[in-house]
Amino acid sequence: MPDRRTLLLGAAAAALAAPALLRSAGAQSAGDWPNRPVRVIIPWPPGGSTDVLARILCEQLHAKLGQPFVLENRPGASGNIGMDAIAKAAPDGYTQGPATIANLSVAQFLYAKLPFDPEKDFSLVSMHWELPNVVVAPAQYTPANTLQELIAWLKSRRNGVSFGSPGVGTTAHLSGALFCDRQKIDGQHVPFRGAAQIIPAMLSGDLTFAIDNLASYMPVIAEGRMKAFAVTSPERWPTLPNIPTMAEAGVPDFVITSWCAWVGPAGMPRPIIDKVNAAMKEVAADPTVQQRFMQTGAKCVWSTPEDAAAHAARQRPMLAEMVKISGARME
């Protein structure tokens, strides 16, 4: 029989060894990851830019990492429902998703209370995409052909006009509010669940215009059903070379790009983050993928996790001011 001192020494040694064993198990788990499908929560409805671009990325991640990345749309509350689901998931790498500028850099200025902390509750993996907003209006109901003509026409509407967005606090909402404020347009914001609802409302004549993510509107612009008047990027967009920037169209100081980062819950193991990040770097370097993104109206981008977090932080002061101008406040 071992004496009491031997038992105590053995227990102490086991306690000291436990963290090392856990670290070893964690490292092995990260090395084996993924060994089953990865759930990808999309905080926006099907058909919008975030959904479309996430689907392209997930096809590529499946090919590079060997397991399906299965999309699950969880829209509502300007993306907060889906983001909360990501934040509260187990940080094992099997729940990830796209987090937009609205989720990471706007929500904290818009909502009195959030179910998650945008700065603390997520593991950022990489930047995912960037795109401009585009000023659009339905061709059937809009006589204007230039942005200045559109502004004059909007001002002339006796009962005011309406502009749509995928939700309160999105860049589409803040861009529309800033545009109406600067141009002295009597504009009423109408929030929808996503572009899949905004576009039919405009095409039916129930909504006047939008300044929304370009990716969602490329098909209807190409078909001629929607007029594009200007993009909010600093330079003309490659796939719409004939559409001027806001500055070129006579509206200076209106550079607002929408962007998205790829995230998981806080505490996701760094080896898993690095594995996904490396795959995303390969995806962004693929000319075929870049062409697919461009065709949908976006640019596929990559960054380190640290640069993604820094980018979100840099954007917050400007966006806080835009929220203030919009007058929006959510409980």
UniProtKB/TrEMBL annotation:
Keywords: Signal. InterPro entries: BUG (IPR005064), Bug_dom1 (IPR042100), TAT_signal (IPR006311). The keyword Signal applies. The keyword Protein biosynthesis does not apply. SUPFAM superfamilies: Periplasmic binding protein-like II. It comes from the Bacteria. Residues 1-29 form the signal peptide. Belongs to the UPF0065 (bug) family. This is Tripartite tricarboxylate transporter substrate binding protein.
